[in-house]
Amino acid sequence: MKFKVVIVISMFLLFASGCSNKDELNSLMKPPKLSASQSQISEIMGKFIPKNVRLIIPSYGENQKSIEYIDIDGDKKDEAIIFLKEEGKQSYDSKIGFLILKQIKDKWTNEAYISEYGNFIESVTFKDVDGDRKNEIILDYKMEGSSIENIGIYKENESGFKKIFSAPCSNFILEDLDMDGTMELIVFNDEKCTLYKADKQGLSEKDEADFLVFKGCSIVVQAVNKSSKAILVKSESFSKEIMVKDNKLQIIEN
């Protein structure tokens, strides 16, 4: 009997509350409204992106969002970098890439769309590679079933965004090792490590050395002194340091 009374009272309270509860319930069921900025981005994506393209999230690293906001060109306004995957009929036909939107007078405009053959974005980094106080986009991506990754570096110039570097790799480190204000890129691949340095043409190869990186090795950057850093490659059986001096690789066994 008590159970029936509780039900009757509950139903009475529900109907006696009138439209206010209905309005609250309806508002809870509706999706949240997009901000004006988000709405503009959504509209631009619908206009410029094919239907077979979807958002993708980088697998590793600090930037694991499908949309990143960062100042690429140094104008103190963030660009929107949107990471995308274009599904192909076969996995090897698929592409990954990113759409760059700029803010002009508080409105988002399409700046560039860059794509590469691949299935996964492993990581994305934003760094000033050549010391011009503008961030480049460093994309680490790979095909499904492949152990080899690809690194692409993209930079804005007068004609728009373009790729200034591309190479296959098993691993890489991008760091100012000799502390001269421009980055060194160390690419590990095929039992070798190769040193690249930024210049007006992009990144040029400066040196190469035999260096086998075993699976499971830890690779970290550590400070040596105030004027240099080293890459420490370590496993259970060995420990080596890689340093750069006068655009030459120095391999030190510990």
UniProtKB/TrEMBL annotation:
Annotated signal peptide: 1-22
PROSITE patterns listed in its UniProt record: PROKAR_LIPOPROTEIN
UniProt keyword annotations, A-Z: Signal
Keyword Signal: yes
Signal in keyword set: yes
Protein's name in the database: VCBS repeat-containing protein
